[in-house]
Amino acid sequence: MSEERLNKEAYRALEDVVGPDYISDAPAVLDSYAYSGKGSGELFNPRFAAIILPKETTEVQAIVRLCNKYGLQYKAASTGWGSRGSGGMIWIDLRRMNRIIEINEKNMYAVVEPYVIGGQLQAELMKRGLNYNVIGAGANCSALPYAAHYGGGHMSETTSLRERNILGAEWVTPDGEIIRMGSLGSIGEWFCADGPGPSLRGLTLGTTSPMGAMGVFTKAATKLYPWSGPIPYPLEGHSPCYYTNEMPPNCLYRYYSFPTAEDMSEAQRRISENEIAYEIMGFTAAMMASNIGTNNEEDYAYCEQFLKEMQGPGFQVIIIGNSPRDFEFKKKLLERIIEDTKGESLKAVEDPKIAGGMLWRSIRITASTRECFRAGGAFGVVLGGSHPYNEEIRFVRQVVEIKKEWIKKGVLRDDHGGYLTWTHEHGHLGHAETLFQFAKGPEAGEAVKDMIQKGLQIAIDSHYGVTLMVADELHYLFGPHTCNYHLWMKKIKQAFDPNEAAEPSGFISGKN
Amino acid sequence: MALEDLREDMEMCSKCSICKFIPLEMVKGFEHANACPSITKYQFNTYSGGGRMNIGVAMLENRLEYDDNLKHIIWNCQTCGACDISCKYAMDMEVLEPIYEFRIRAVEKGATHPALDKVINSLRKQGTMVPGAKGRRSDWATGLGLKDATREKVDVLYHVGCLSSYDREAQKLARATVKILQKAGVNFGIAGENESCCGGRAYQMGYKEDFLNQAKKNMDMIQKAGVKTLITACADGYGAFKVLYDKFNLKGDMEVLHITEYIDRLIKESKLKMTKNVNMKVTYHDPCYLGRLGEPWIHWEGKKIPGIMRRFEPPKELRRGANGIYEPPRDVLNAIPGVSLIEMDRIKEYAWCCGAGGGVNESNPEFARWTATQRIDEAEMTGAEAIVTACPWCIKTLNDAIKENGSDLNVYDIVELVEQAI
Question: What does the alpha-carbon distance between residue A205 and residue A508 come to, in Å, rounded to a whole number?
């Protein structure tokens, strides 16, 4: 553990900003933030120097300026998974910034602070017949569109991606300036990311989210979409087993598997082109089992059952009809497409009790923790980008061969080499992932490293484009093959963060 | 089970934050999404269920000393179990058990809280968790003509509990309970001066040995009296007799029922009729140790199955809150003529705590009242005239908060409404 303590003057100055109750350098507090929660590395990262919890943007600004003044690095995060950053830095926990600033029904946007979780915003929106792009990490994660590393999710078919949903935003730059982006910067309205006013969306995002390395995003607006499903949703039961007695009207949930990847992708493409699905989400057998099973025993049994029943790769589809006629049309067309593409419905999940629960879980996105962590405590993923759909399919099919090798060695959970692909924006884009579950502990470290390294090399060698990644050294891997974009990222980082105050891990360092 | 035995559970924490919120499928809006009073009040991740798992691991790694800050974290938790239930929506790991064990270890190491020491001294000297208790334990029953269950044969032992025995305000709940049982013609008795604290609260506070002493003392008395059925109107008592005594293999085959379960049974067997109107719109607060933590203890012994997936032989069933006592109190309320029940946002397994548990009432009464105030605000939003519950500790904490912060809500125990209706 690092014992790099903050000097008293700096601590007092930070304390003056938030008050004594909202800053701490106590060892127990530091250790709960240093605990990595990761699967394959050390249990604890080096301790941060202090944890600070601002309430207002002006407090964030003051903290950032003090960090610049005292030569401290900082990283801000809201909900997050795990611990990120380096020892000795200031961790800005945005937990107290938890207000929904506005839900504008007429102009269809919502403005939130970082610690509003997806579950809260979505529940408020659904009461108003609206919805938004809850990220795949789940309802327990921030609803701020800037907060996620990867802003796709189960509903990206209809609600697109984070970077396409961001509207006006408020940004405390790495050196402490407050910039209001998009229309917010000129007329104080949140409706547009690109003007009138400073259009900095691309610059602030890079290829992926800057993961706290480009200052702090304190408020942002996200686009809204219609929700035609029932509210309240007729759930029965107790945690962890919530279900419906019957499927609500005009709603359909199905999981289809296919003899070949070609058949599956053809089905996804046609469903998307016809714009009939509210949600298309690629799930492996193991992920389906995690969603439906309420514990590892059930999860294991379901997975075995599904692997026997499934013909090959598959995905789930949700239809929400805007009217009975609309529903019937979409359902018939779906059935036709599935028949044409030799898809088979997974019988177990046709049971309305299971299907109704799955529909709700998949719209609310409440089971991501189950999918990723419950089996063995850890997961890894080789992510594609958000690219043309067919490229993504080709990419993931190559990567999954590496996964199969590690499954054979008994290091990764055996899901018969499952992978997941799904369409975004009715098929304009697509995304693919090779997700793998393993037992928490150092044993899987080699597998994780191997999967990621080889996966990225495949992306480079086969020209699949830049994948989504969270380590700055990887930009150096891709950059030379992609117009040296990493050098431009570095210049941007240097220009906005001359003191490298915003801790750069997960993005890129401005240092040479 | 020692903290070391729970290490793997604690290390399963992925810092996903699910423990901070009610089960996500049940989040109904911006308000009332929080599950845990401690993280909601103190904000640092350390105060959440997950944060407590992380520092549990840190303790096992010898990274921490019992300084004032760590003690503040340890003692400012109601052990309400909300984090445990929310985590188990997604994960197969214990959360509340490590929290108990962390406390037990702190007590063993002398890292106690002075206010809790005072309560335990009272327990050791007077057999009650009400420090400064005056008079005899059964003074409240004077003139009621109750049987002494340690001397006379009874079908049911009514364990009154510390607060209802000694607290002047809470004594009316004991008298209401007696009236109901008499009206139904139940052959019951009390243990009078032989009754002693159940020890449940002592366990929540980390004083495991004191709990065990109380449990053994009580079970000796109960077995000598030949009692087969014990009822209590206190949720803490219920949790102790039904769950904790069983956990430590002390309960035997004694049937333990909460008064709401027993009244529900009496109504359904037509032994108790509620005939008078109690015209009132009410909302019901689930006490933690009757609700999510009131489900039976599940004994398990076995081993982990080698492999990636965390599975056990024989399969290990976790207590996830699904089998708590939720319907009997609601059925009783719905059976009272004129009572209209309106639910709050957070109910049953994901109910918000009243603030009293884990010794917080004594160690940090301001935090207890703050927690209760959150609940009162939530109850007010339903439009109910009264918040009804089924535990004297909840009643006291909710009333204390109303005294401090004001509210038009009345606070009742279910037995008071039943008493009015019979």
Answer: 12
Same domain for A254 and A153: no
Copy the structure tokens of residue B360: 């917080």
User: For B213-230, what is the mean pLDDT?
Assistant: 96
CA distance B169 to chain A (A): 35
Distance from CA of A269 to the nearest CA of B (A): 30
Q: Is A234 on the interface with B (CB under 8 A)?
A: no
Q: Does A91 touch chain B (CB under 8 A)?
A: no
A89 within a domain of the structure (yes/no):
no
Cβ B309–A299 below 8 Å, yes or no?
yes
Tokens of B364: 């940090």
Q: Is A20 on the interface with B (CB under 8 A)?
A: no
Q: Which of B8, B42, B44, B70 to mutate to test the interface with A (most CBs of A within 10 A)?
A: B44
Q: Summarize pLDDT for A453-501 with one digit per residue, the tens.
A: 899 899 999 988 888 776 778 888 889 998 999 999 999 999 999 999 9
Backbone CA torsion sign across B102, B105, B106, B112: positive
d(CA A262, CA A45) in angstroms, rounded, equals: 43
Structure tokens at B392: 């004297």
Least-confidence region, from A173-177, A462-466, B168-172, B355-359 = A462-466
B410: three-class secondary structure by DSSP: strand
**Is the same domain home to A217 and A248?**
no
Task: Provide the pLDDT confidence category of residue A2 given band limits of 50, 70 and 90.
Answer: very low
* Interface touch A140/B17, C-beta < 8 Å: yes
Instruction: Answer yes or no: are the C-beta atoms of A191 and A183 closer than 8 Å.
Output: yes
Give how far A276 is from chain B: nearest CA, Å: 25
Euclidean distance between CA atoms A295 and B297, whole angstroms: 18
Class of domain B124-268: mainly alpha
Nearest-CA distance B25 → chain A (Å): 6
Last residue of a domain, one of A226, A255, A272: A226
Matching residue, tokens 């992925």 = B14
Name the amino acid, one letter, at A507: F
Task: Look at the block and give the residue holding tokens 């240093």.
Answer: A34
Q: Is the peptide bond before A240 cis (omega within 30 degrees of 0)?
A: yes
- How far apart CA B55 and CA B71 sit, in angstroms, is 12
Count: domains in chain A: 2
Cβ separation B45–A33 shorter than 8 A: yes
Residues of chain A in contact with residue B85, where contact means CB-CB under 8 angstroms, are: 239
* Residue type, position A113, single letter: E
Q: How far is B117 from chain A (nearest CA, A)?
A: 23
**CATH number of residue A114's parent domain:** 3.30.465.10
Beta bridge partners of A172: A178, A216
Q: What's the rounded Cα separation, in Å, for the pair A148 and A143?
A: 9
A375 touches chain B (CB under 8 A): yes
Chain A residue with Cα closest to B53: A32
- Whether residue A132 contacts residue A125, with contact meaning beta carbons closer than 8 Å, is answered with yes
- Do A321 and A213 share a structural domain? no
Contact between chains at A53 and B12 (C-beta distance less than 8 A):
no
For chain A, give the number of residues.
Answer: 512
- Range(s) of the domain holding residue A335: 239-461
Answer yes or no: do A245 and A368 share one domain: yes
Q: Are B169 and B130 contacting, i.e. CB atoms less than 8 angstroms apart? A: no
> In chain B, what percentage of residues exceed pLDDT 90?
98
Residues of B whose CB is below 8 A from A140 = 16-18, 20-21, 24
CA distance B3 to B160: 33
The candidate with the shortest Cα–Cα distance to B140, out of B120, B115, B170, B116, is: B170
Number of Cβ pairs < 8 A linking chain A and chain B: 209
Neighbours of A499 (CB within 10 A): 14
Contact A119 B70 (CB under 8 A): no
* Residue in the block written with tokens 């702190």: B106
